[in-house]
Amino acid sequence: MEKIVLVTGASRGIGRKIAKELAQKGYKVIANYNKSREEAEKLQQENKNIEIYKADVSKREEVSKMVQEVIKKYGKIDILINNAGISQEKLFTDVTDEDWNTMINNNLYSVFCVTQEVLPNMLSRKQGCIINISSIWGMVGASCETIYSVAKAGIDGMTKSLAKELGLSNIRVNSIAPGYIDTDMNKNLTEQEVKEIEQEIPLGKIGKTIDIAKCVNWLIEDEYTTGQVISINGGWVII
Ligand code: NAP
Predict the structure, then answer these.
(1) Which residue has its alpha carbon closest to ligand 1 atom 39?
(2) Long-range pairs for 94-101: beta carbons < 8 A, 24 or more residues apart
(3) pLDDT tens digits, residue range 193-212?
(4) pLDDT value, residue 205
(5) Ligand 1 neighbours (beta carbon < 6 A)
(6) 6 with 18: CB under 8 angstroms?
(7) CB of 62 within 8 A of CB of 107?
(8) Backbone angles phi, psi at 223, to 5 degrees
(9) Is the pLDDT of residue 44 over 90?
(10) Cα(31)–Cα(79) distance, rounded to whole angstroms?
(11) What Å distances lie between residue 96 and 87, 90, 110, 135, CA to CA?
(12) Which of 76, 152, 178, 209 could be cross-linked to 17 through a Cys-Cys bond (beta carbons 3.0 to 4.6 Å apart)?
């Protein structure tokens, strides 16, 4: 039977690659996007297994509507990939309440909200796989990215707690914590800065979106991994 996957933030970067790879493998992929309509439409044209859906995942009503419509159409969501996220670099002393709310809502509340909307369907079928995309910065902290790091650490906490709560319902929950991956999120860095980062990475190179998509694929196929934070980072962070 066809497996239904919901990938949040799939118009660009890591989410887009995950959507493409899973669609190629035969999954029916609901590719969520918010602002990048053109990119999302191109993605849909590339593969008949991809269906795009616009929703701001930091807003409960939009998430609820998206999830209900997907379930009405396909009857289920087998796999949820909470990937959508935004970053911001600011001194801690400059961060405003508005920055805090924007970063937490888009990076952490969104994961809480989408997961809560999807879970009743998974629970009723006693089956499910949830993969949250966090970050190495949630594990070790990033200077000038405190709120981002807080949000990502929060995602990993949610992953571990939910894995314990949902294990007996046959729902696995894991995080993938990427290191530096070549996407728009890092486009503010100069070539020189990227070179310097590469020198700090034991494998000597920055990551590609496919590196994360491969891990997603493995976590979907695996049956005995839950509550783990798997960091794909070329050895940049080893703990
Ligand atoms: P990206 O290229 O900037 O893409 C971000 C994606 O998230 C876009 O598709 C964007 O959609 C979507 N998005 C953001 N806010 C959204 C919202 N409120 N509702 C729906 N979609 C939303 O970033 P990326 O590098 O692929 O990052 C993907 C995930 O990996 C993020 O969670 C990020 O924190 C994490 N990560 C990335 C790196 C890295 O080095 N790149 C490292 C560690 C972790 P629209 O453009 O359509 O709004």
Answers:
(1) 181
(2) 95/146, 95/147, 99/147, 100/147
(3) 999 999 999 999 999 999 99
(4) 98
(5) 8-9, 11-15, 32-36, 56-58, 83-86, 106, 110, 133, 135, 178, 180-181, 183-186
(6) no
(7) no
(8) -125, 0
(9) yes
(10) 12
(11) 15, 10, 20, 22
(12) 209
Q: What proportion of the chain, given as a percentage, has pLDDT over 70?
A: 100
* Closest to 194 (Cα-Cα) out of 210, 184, 203, 206: 206
DSSP letter at 180? S
Q: Could you give the domains of the chain?
A: 4-230 (3.40.50.720)
Distance from the alpha carbon of residue 113 to the mean position of ligand 1, in angstroms? 16
Read off the amino acid at residue 238.
I
Q: What is the pLDDT of residues 123-173, one digit of tens each?
A: 999 999 999 999 999 999 999 999 999 999 999 999 999 999 999 999 999
Burial, 208: exposed, middle or buried (Cβ in 10 Å; 0-12, 13-18, 19+)?
A: middle
Q: Tokens at residue 23, please?
A: 């669609």
pLDDT category of residue 38 using cuts at 50, 70 and 90 = very high
